[in-house]
Input
Amino acid sequence: MRSVVAMLWALALLVGLKQSSSTAIISIDLSSKNLSVVPGDLPSSAEYVDLSLNHIRLLRSGDFENTTRLRFLNLSWNGLEKIDQLVFSGTPLLEDMDLSHNSLQNLSHQPYLFNMRNLQGLNLAFNMFFNMRLGEEFRTLATLQRLAIGGNNIQLDDFKSITGVKLQTLTLCLEIGTTYVAGSLDHVRAKRLQIVLSKGKILGTLYGLLGDALLLFHELELTGLTGGYNNIVKQLIKGEIHTSHFHLTDILIQWHDLTDFVNAVLQANIPQLTITDMALLKLPFNDTYVSNTSAVKSITLRRATVKSFFFSQTAVYNFFINMPVVSMAVLETPIIHMTCPMSQSPLRQLDFSNCAMADTIFSRVEGEHILECETFGQLNQLFLRGNNLKDFQVLSTRVQYMTSLEYLDLSLNYLIHDSQAECAWPPSLIHVNLSSNRLTHSVFSCLPRGTKVLDLQNNQVSVVPQGPFLRLDSLAILDLSSNRLRDLPVCGGFPTLTTLLLNDNSLHAPSVTNLNSCPKLEFLDVSHNPYTCTCELRSFRSLGTKSQQKNGQTRIHLLSWPVGYRCSYPDALRNSTLKDFWIPEVSCNVGLLAVTILGPAFIIIIAVTTICHRLDVPWYMSMIWQWAMVKYRAKSNNDRLQDMLGVEFHAFVSYSQQDAEWVNDTLLPNLQGPAGGGLHICHHGESFLPGKTILENIMHCVEKSWRCVFVLSSHFVKSDWCNYELYFASQQHLSWGSDRVVLLLLEPVPQYLIPSKFHQLKLLMSKHTYLEWPQEKAKHRLFWANLRAALQEDLRNAPPARQLDVDDVTTSTPSCQRSTATAY
Ligand SMILES: *[C@@H]1O[C@H](CO)[C@@H](O)[C@H](O)[C@H]1NC(C)=O
Ligand SMILES: *[C@@H]1O[C@H](CO)[C@@H](O)[C@H](O)[C@H]1NC(C)=O
Ligand SMILES: *[C@@H]1O[C@H](CO)[C@@H](O)[C@H](O)[C@H]1NC(C)=O
Ligand SMILES: *[C@@H]1O[C@H](CO)[C@@H](O)[C@H](O)[C@H]1NC(C)=O
Ligand SMILES: *[C@@H]1O[C@H](CO)[C@@H](O)[C@H](O)[C@H]1NC(C)=O
Ligand SMILES: *[C@@H]1O[C@H](CO)[C@@H](O)[C@H](O)[C@H]1NC(C)=O
Ligand SMILES: *[C@@H]1O[C@H](CO)[C@@H](O)[C@H](O)[C@H]1NC(C)=O
Ligand SMILES: *[C@@H]1O[C@H](CO)[C@@H](O)[C@H](O)[C@H]1NC(C)=O
Output
């Protein structure tokens, strides 16, 4: 079974590998290989080929004839001078081509572009083009989305041939001396214009370009600026502006240039400003003016660094926090503090993700008092994820006056809550993200009352506490994944919960009954927990299988079922899904188990008993037992030799006269005759010596016999003589060992029938097991064998077989019955 599964697995893996190899992008990196021609052995499956940083000056037709799947080609930094017209005729799928930093000369003459029906990205920047006139071939690039070009002067009609091409981004890579004739970009249909300035400064010569850019493009990005900001400011103040998103990327800027620029943007009513990778110089010592009115909606600063050591941090913070914008973000910037706006701030969204903010944020110390910020009355969303925040309770006081705050993201900090002080959240809070902190169960005593969505994933919560302090009456979504919970929580404190996420915790056998306290629960995720697949898990498993059924008897929908739910114990079931794990009801229910096991057992016992009874197994068993005992005694009896002295008979048989017929006809022939193994038997019939008294004969017989066989029957117990014989024999044999008395039960003799004077017999019967004469003929053989085995012994003094006069004997030697008769 297991090997079959393993084989299937291997097969699946192989198939999977094959498929993935056929779908994976084949990428060939041949950059910096000192190549002077395109290698002839490019694999035909190649899709991404990087040939950058080589010396390929010429692309010949046929260079890519066999790479028909080619989609990306990088030929930058090669010194390319000439490209054959037909070189890409065999690569209809080519999507992206980088030909930047080469020595191509005439932008109007790039005939190889005629065959590129699928081209989306083309980089022709940093070649040796003198002007930017695009040739007719560009007209055919209907799918082009990104075009990067560079040239020394831009003139009217240069872009005429791409009028019909709807670009996403046009990138102009400009050298310092580039000239621009106003209106040259009129023909371009692009959402975004990116101007890359290789030497950094916007000079007056590009003044017109900036004006056209702000007029014509929805988004404008200036990259690599190091100066000339005054030209931009001038244009922003003066010109007509249609741009709605202004980007500055990778810039070096002085503080006063930045403030001028920002104020100009605020005045120009460009809705969005984004500054990325900014290095700041000459930072301020005093507060800087910032306009108090603007239509700008959003300002984003990403990865700002400072190049000064001495400056007023407060002045810098104040400049940003007092901007009259709706949304402000300072991201991935190592600032440790933010001040409070001077007056009521219009900010509705504030994002300081991935900075280095400390717990002092927004607050101010005056003397011995900490003054909390009260001017964020409009603030609706505050993102402080990925900072250096530590004290949860202190944070609540920091935001307590943000009376419109609904969304608070404190994820990815170092928050703990161990303070006894009251938490002071604004009542407006409904969405709180506390994921990836160090919070334990104590956090539940410090949560905003109105929370609807609470994200506590990846913390250290081991239990959801219960109690009157925990009242989250609006909580609908609770994410406790990646914590340390050991069981399902009780929803006492949040009766309206609809979604509960508990994946990646330590639940091993969830108590499904706890969910009864969650009347509104609809979605439950308990995947990726270390389930112990034993009886305890059955109720949970049935929750899963029920939630899977479409007609859904249960309202709870178990997310990620079944693949996310796997056994981690016992080892034999490890990693098998809970869905596949099945334990029969009976092995878990003790009552049922008892019934199922004991029922059949009971029946079997009865059956065995009945069969034994029918087949008389006990009788056979006792026969075999006795036979075995005899054999054992015979072996273990060491001083037997001593005892054997003077013994002439194997046995003396004592019986009642009424049983004489059976003794003579059945017993004796089976012991004495050739069939009986020739045992010597002393019995009333033939062995009593004539002339001796009966008593003497009996005593003689008992003395000379190895064993005494008493044929017990109801007649026997009625005979006094027999009692006497028994008494004598047992007395005699006591000295030898009681095992010399063999009791042969001819018919059942109940103990109560035995008269009290036969106490010898009672004693013997209780100590001795006896041989029962079976009625069934089939058992006789075993009976005789057993009896013979009990009597069999090697006699040295056996008398020669003598023939007695039967009549004489019978008259002179009465059986014990007759004696009894005389006694009465
Ligand atoms: C690069 O190739 C040229 C000839 O094609 C050769 O002269 C030069 O030594 C090679 N350079 C390196 C670093 O291998
Ligand atoms: C393309 O494949 C053909 C046939 O295999 C071969 O003759 C030719 O040289 C190959 N061309 C290139 C450029 O590798
Ligand atoms: C092409 O290669 C150059 C140099 O390796 C690299 O800088 C450039 O980003 C690559 N172009 C594309 C589109 O990946
Ligand atoms: C550039 O190509 C165009 C079109 O083929 C041609 O008219 C023009 O003379 C070429 N310019 C130069 C400088 O070679
Ligand atoms: C800062 O402002 C104060 C007065 O408000 C002034 O005395 C001081 O010179 C200013 N410092 C700088 C560096 O501008
Ligand atoms: C902006 O500031 C000016 C003075 O600096 C003040 O008169 C005006 O009321 C302020 N406007 C707002 C909306 O705060
Ligand atoms: C909480 O923040 C984490 C990390 O910042 C994010 O992955 C998660 O989606 C946020 N949760 C909610 C409910 O917004
Ligand atoms: C468990 O099984 C799943 C799918 O069968 C597999 O992706 C995963 O790697 C397995 N995990 C372990 C620890 O074997």
